[in-house]
Amino acid sequence: MKKKFFLLALAPLYFMAAGLLLQSPASIGSGLFNILKEPDFLITDYFVVGGPGAAFLNAGAVTLLCLGLVWALGMEINGHTITSACLMFGFSLFGKNLLNIWSILAGVFLYARYHKTPVSKYIYIGFYGTSLSPIITELMQIGHLPLWARLLLAAATGVAIGFVLPPLSSHVHSAHKGYSLYNVGFAAGIIATVVMSLCKSFGMEIPSRLLWATEYTWEMAAILGIFLAALIVISLFPSPKETLLHYKNIWKSDGRGADYLVSEGPRAVMLNIGINGFFAAGFVLLVGGELNGPSIGAIFTVLGFSATGKHLRNIAPVMAGVWLASLTKLWSITDPSAILALLLSTTLAPIAGRFGILWGIAAGFLHSSVALNVGIVYSGMNLYNNGFAGGLVAMFLVPLIQSIADRRARAREELSL
C-alpha cells in the first residue's frame, strides 16, 4: 500500500519541482505568505498572487498532506483517492491553501465522531467540501473585529460547514441522480448561498474579483505536456494491448457511479487521464485561452474524474456545447469564466454518456449560461461553482430527456399519456 501512495505522490512532487525551477526560493517564500493572507474567492489566480512556483508548492503540499491523511486512516487507494487528490491539487492553484481547509475537515471529523462512524467514510466528502474554504479566508479578514474573534468565527463556521456537508451531499444526490459528477459542489453551492446570505444580512460586502495570469501559457503547456505524455507512455507497458482493451471498457461506461481504478486497473486509468488531459488542454489552447492557475486547476478536475466517470466519449460533446454557445452568446470563449465553464462543464459527462452526443451538446450549451450567472448568489465563495451549476442543469435537463424517451416508448406500445 505504501508503494501505491508513493507513486500517487509523484504527481504533486513533479509539479513542486517544476515550481522551484520557475521561481526563486526567496520569492516563493513571500509568495506563499501572500497566498495564505489574500482573499481567494472566484476568480483568484495564485499565479498572480504568489507566482507559479509558490502556487505549485502550495498545491503540492496540500495534496501530499491529504494523501498522508488517507494513508494514516488505513484506506486503500481507489478511484476517489485519485479524484480527490487531483481536485485538492488543482483548486489549490486558485482558492485552497495550507491555512483555510482545516476547519472544514475538522467539521467532517466531528460529524463522523458524532455518528460513531469511521472518518474514512466521509473523508473524500471533506476534501471536496473544502471548495468552501474562501469563506474561511474572508471571515478571517473582517476588519472591525479583533484577531481572536475573527479566528474563532472562521473556525466555527468551517466546522459547521464540514458538519452539514455529509448529510446534505447524500440528500442532493437524489435530485440529479448522478448525472452531475460534482455532487459535493452542488451541495456546497447550497451551503455557500445560505452562509453568504447570512453574512450579507450583517453588512458584509464582497467585491468582485478577477486575477487571471496571461504570461505563463507556453511554460505551463510544456510542464503539463511532459506529465501527461509520461502517463500515457507508462500506461502502455508491459502490454499495450491489455491497456487498450481495458480503456475500451471505460468508453462503454456512461460515467455514473464509476470507479475505473477498481474495474479496469491503474494502467487504463493512466491512459484515460493522459488522453483526457491532452484533449482538455489542447481545447483551451486551440480556442486561444491561457494556461494558468485556474485553468490548470480545471484541467486537473478533468484528470481526477478520469478515474471516476469521465472519458473522451462523454466529455467531448459537453465541451463542444459550451464552445458552440460562445458563438451565439454575448461572451467570448476566451473569457476567464468561460474557459472554466468549458473545462468544468464536463461534470455533465454522464448525460452525454447515457443519452448521446446531441444531448451532451445541449447540456454543455445550457451549462455555459447557468455557470456564468449563478455564482452571484454566493459571491464566488464556492470554488466548485460549476458543480452547483451542473447540478441545476442536470435537475432540469434529465427529467426532460427522460420524458421524451418515455413518450416515444409509450407511443411504440400504443399507450396514452
Give structural notes.
The radius of gyration is 21 Å and the shape is globular. It folds into 2 domains: 2-201, no CATH class; 217-408, no CATH class. The longest helix is centred in the middle third of the chain and has 30 residues, at 147-176. The chain has 417 residues and is mainly α. The model has no long low-confidence stretch (mean pLDDT 94). The chain has 20 helices and no strands. Helix 2 packs across helix 4 and helix 9 (147-176) crosses helix 10 (183-201). The chain has helices at residues 2-22, 25-37, 46-49, 52-72, 79-91, 102-114, 123-129, 133-139, 147-176, 183-201, 217-235, 240-252, 260-264, 266-286, 293-304, 312-326, 336-344, 349-355, 357-374, 385-412.
Write a compact overview of the structure shown.
This protein has 417 residues and is mostly helical. Helices cover 71% and strands 0% of the residues.
Distance between the termini: 55 Å
Mean pLDDT over the full residue set: 94
Unreliable sequence segments: none
Query: How many strand units?
Result: 0
Total of DSSP H or I helical runs spanning 4+ residues: 20
Order of helices and strands: HHHHHHHHHHHHHHHHHHHH
Kindly give the count of domains.
Answer: 2
Instruction: Assign an overall shape.
Output: globular
Rg over alpha carbons: 21 Å
Q: Biggest sheet, in brief?
A: none
Which secondary structure elements does this structure contain, and how are they paired or packed?
Layout: H1 2-22, H2 25-37, H3 46-49, H4 52-72, H5 79-91, H6 102-114, H7 123-129, H8 133-139, H9 147-176, H10 183-201, H11 217-235, H12 240-252, H13 260-264, H14 266-286, H15 293-304, H16 312-326, H17 336-344, H18 349-355, H19 357-374, H20 385-412
Helix pairs in contact: 1-4, 2-4, 4-5, 5-15, 6-7, 6-9, 8-9, 9-10, 10-20, 11-14, 12-14, 14-15, 15-17, 16-17, 16-18, 16-19, 17-19, 18-19, 19-20
